[in-house]
Amino acid sequence: MLPHLDAAYTLARYLLRSEDAAQDAVQEAFLRAVRHFDGYRGDNARAWLLTIVRHCCATARTRGKREDAFVEFDERLHSAHIESATPELHLVRSGAADEFHRALDSLSANDREVLILREVEDLSYEEIARTLGAPIGTVMSRLARARKRIQALVHRESRDAS
């Protein structure tokens, strides 16, 4: 599970928008993974761990923590380990990180979650469906909706800035 620690933290950080809450959620997820390792069926360790992280984040959010009270995620500080050329990194490198993060923050938790799992963590639709416990069609529609909303918001902000 340790090779997936960065992915677990990145997901938790995006979902909870707080460094401390993300660290707590990842720690809880690893404890749960160790406790319930006998339930792991050996298919995809990363997807299995991210499912646990997702549940820990949901639990943290329902414990009375309001989303608007969380600290904004700073891509430059917290995701330097991500080296792939995702659409998000393209935006960050092109100087549009602030616009992207404002757009990302405006998404619903479900849409933000599926976008992070696909574009940042590079999970397949099937892995995301397993992680979320949702049908692949739901994953695809959430992802399409999230991408469309991000694109519209980033385009609007860049147009407003001109």
Q: Which CATH class of the largest domain is shown?
A: Mainly Alpha
Question: What is the H-and-E element order?
Answer: HHHHHHHHH
Helix count equals 9
Gyration radius over CA: 16 Å
Specify the structural class: mainly alpha
- Number of structural units classed as domains: 2
Which CATH-level-2 architecture of the largest domain?
Answer: Orthogonal Bundle
Description of the molecule:
- With about 160 residues, the protein is mainly α.
- The protein folds into 2 domains: about 1-70, Orthogonal Bundle (Rna Polymerase Sigma Factor, Chain: A), CATH 1.10.1740; about 85-160, Winged helix-like DNA-binding domain superfamily/Winged helix DNA-binding domain (Arc Repressor Mutant, subunit A, Orthogonal Bundle).
- The chain is about 70% helix and about 0% strand.
- The chain is built from 9 helices and no strands.
- It has helices at about 5-15, 20-35, 45-60, 75-80, 85-95, 95-105, 110-120, 125-130, 135-160.
- Helix 1 (about 5-15) crosses helix 2, helix 2 (about 20-35) crosses helix 3 (about 45-60) and helix 3 (about 45-60) crosses helix 8.
- The radius of gyration is 16 Å and the shape is globular.
